[in-house]
Design a protein that fits this description.
Elements: H1 14-26, E1 30-31, H2 35-42, H3 48-56, E2 61-62, H4 64-67, E3 84-88, E4 112-116, H5 122-125, H6 127-137
Parallel strand pairs: 3-4
Antiparallel strand pairs: 1-2
């Protein structure tokens, strides 16, 4: 959850930004992490075959979306709409010392918290658990 004026690169460790910069420079402004990094950080709960099949269908991600600050009229905590936060327990896309929850989820203000098993790419590794968690997050 970025604050108004922040971008994704503001929320990650400097060595991640350096990695993204290098990958984007070599890929005409797009980011597709090398498979070994992506596998360990994003889909660490998959066997090699599933991880490779999932990687093969990824699309390059425009790097500008990592760099451009978000425009919000107010912080998300001040927004009156209901919010939920889904935390996948095996998600290691960020170092655990800088994990997603509670460091970023608390920026939502009042929110419903839901956990499920899985990595950052749970839709590939545990879609049933993810669907149940989304349903629980939106129960009202």
């Amino acid at each position: 959850m970025p604050e108004p004026g922040q971008c994704l690169n503001d929320l990650v460790p400097p060595h991640y930004t350096a990695l993204f910069d290098g990958v984007a420079a070599a890929s005409k402004g797009a980011v597709v992490l090398p498979f070994p990094i992506w596998r360990e950080a994003f889909i660490n709960d998959a066997d090699l075959g599933l991880a490779q099949r999932a990687y093969d269908v990824l699309n390059p991600h425009p790097y500008k979306t990592f760099q451009d600050p978000i425009t919000l009229s107010q912080p998300m905590a001040a927004c009156p709409i209901p919010k939920s936060y889904l935390n996948c327990r095996q998600d290691t896309a960020l170092p655990q010392s800088l994990g997603w929850h509670p460091r970023l989820s608390e920026r939502l203000g009042l929110f419903r918290y839901v956990e499920c098993e899985g990595s950052h790419e749970t839709w590939f590794t545990n879609p049933t658990a993810l669907a149940s968690a989304i349903e629980a997050a939106a129960r009202d």
